[in-house]
Amino acid sequence: MSSASRPTAGEGRFPLLIDKMVAGGLGLGRHEGQVVFVPRSAPGDRLLVEPRHRQRDFLRAETVEDLLDFALGFHPPCPHFASCGGCSFMHLRPEAQQEAKRQIVLESLRRGGGIAFSGDVPVRTGPETGYRVRARFHVKRTRRGTLVGFYQPGTHRVVDVDRCLQVSAEANRVLREIRDFLAASPRGTATIESFELVEPVMTSPAAEKTQIEGRLIVHFIVKMGRGPAGRNLEEWARRAGLGGLVVSHGGLETGPGDLGRIGQTRALHQVAGFELGATVHAFFQANRFLMDALVEEVVPVDPPRLGRAVDLYCGVGLFSLPLARSVDHVVGVEVSAAAVADARLNARRAGIANVSFRRETAAAYAGRQGFPAVDLVVADPPRAGLERAVVAALCQQPPKELRYVSCDPASLGRDVGRLREGGLELVRLVLLDLFPNTHHIESVATLRPR
Questions:
Q1: pLDDT in tens, 383-392
Q2: 242: burial class by Cβ within 10 Å (0-12, 13-18, 19+)?
Q3: Given 87, 164, 314, 407, the catalytic residue
């Protein structure tokens, strides 16, 4: 018998009580002893569900009746929510979203690391809409026209959207400009498979009051060939009021292979008193409202003077530069060539001489250097979490303090469990709701040697 099967429509409908929310934005219930996952559901919902995908250990199901009007008494404000994969928690009130995320992280620590954390877990929040400074939209051409939007959950079907509540009014204006451009130039834009809108973070009130038009950068990602180019593209970029435009064959790490650049292609973000430039090929955090709060959690205001710090997965220096104000020397470690180039330029422009950046993997650095006589290690890894070599080095030569920035509860739970086995104890945990209305969770865990 196959370990997975896809039931036919209408097969085996049954009532289900949703017990809790789990990672991925799914509600969890149990039917005849089997775990059932249901999207867009909420704890306490009593639903009639229909199986969609069976596995040996669990079942995925969809709600038969209209769930959206009564999930915790909240109606999602976006008309695309029922089909779009951009948001998965919008059917929950903000406070219910935050509590669900808190419980997901705590359960990940219990299940993945065997840790029953009993301390307070504050959640730092900001506005629920207009928060993204970077968003990627997919493009699909059909007989009925060009679709622009996000994928439907679990598929590569593009849900056409003319407006997204996650991005700013300026980004939505440019989104409409791009939709018109794609419709008016079907041949010249035929190879575009997606595009990113990148908007600078302006955290000071004075900067936010300045004219925002002309700051946004568009990054067209093409499948093959050279994509749209020439004078027509330049004229369109000018008419659309863009700050800059990049055409490339991919997302991160393709800077040297860009097919075309127009105007400003490096977003200048104002964060924690620094101007941090980032090309479209370098990773940068996405929430305009909580950027300073994130830095404050990782680099506390007025900390005691430290000797040496290491910033793993440092990107363009988001934490490295603020750390340099209270540390004798900071080493930033980053594998992305684009990000390292940005980080070095950011440090030079800020006049900071006590920070150095090394282009290598965190695992290679940890295996070669270790962390002897290091006061503080900051780690902001991708979703996969810390490599085993990094965990081993941290346990062998533990710093006085580790601040672990996580974007994935499962890898956080696993890594904190391994670190605890090596002698590091979780002493503080803070969540930052960088992605309201979605299931994504950002957290900062502080660990110290026992």
A1: 999 999 999 9
A2: buried
A3: 407
